[in-house]
């Protein structure tokens, strides 16, 4: 049976809106569960292992599945995170690798070593499309995918929209490059970007062309995932980060309510999933 599982991010909940109030973990987990999210990503770049252990019992009490996001600075350092993720019951580890050789032929052994390590420990890894990491560049990542057939992606396309500064409307060539990423993606992250901004407000009129572009990509990615997977969980993480990801006005206040927007994205993605055939 195929199911869509929608998560949010602990990072996105600290704080969760313009109030700038950081709620305690028990309240955060209750809010997330009550809103209908299935799990929550724990970002070890924005926090640490101690935070992961502190929030874990509150996630368990609220029926939330943890997803571990790792930022390994050495090849070896990923191993402890993989063991922790297996113990937590995470479906996979989202790797934002901080080992970043310049040459492509030096990148390949890094990715292969992490995949081999994950296979030995028994928990999958996916490599997030993200800036300032080994998948920083779209073109390089596409070459890595060609060279490493077993490399799987967690698609956060916002980073490549900013990194490549794609003109709107995107050319057929550029859309094709993004489709190649989606065809190797086993999970997805939800944020809308433009060629200049990593995180746009969802209801501003001037942003609607970008909103529709990303909704189209999410539909394409989910449809392709369904075609490749007759069973299993498809995970989509709504990841709307606090400032300075979130834009602010001259008073330092965020220009939109990210908690509301995360729930909007969740509703969009669930609607797309249902239109594609739903669970089953």
TrEMBL record:
In which organism is this protein found? Yoonia rosea
Keywords from the named record: Isomerase
* InterPro entries in the record: Xyl_isomerase-like_sf (IPR036237)
The protein depicted here goes by the name Xylose isomerase-like TIM barrel
Q: State the Gene Ontology terms under molecular function.
A: isomerase activity
Q: Does the keyword Isomerase apply?
A: yes
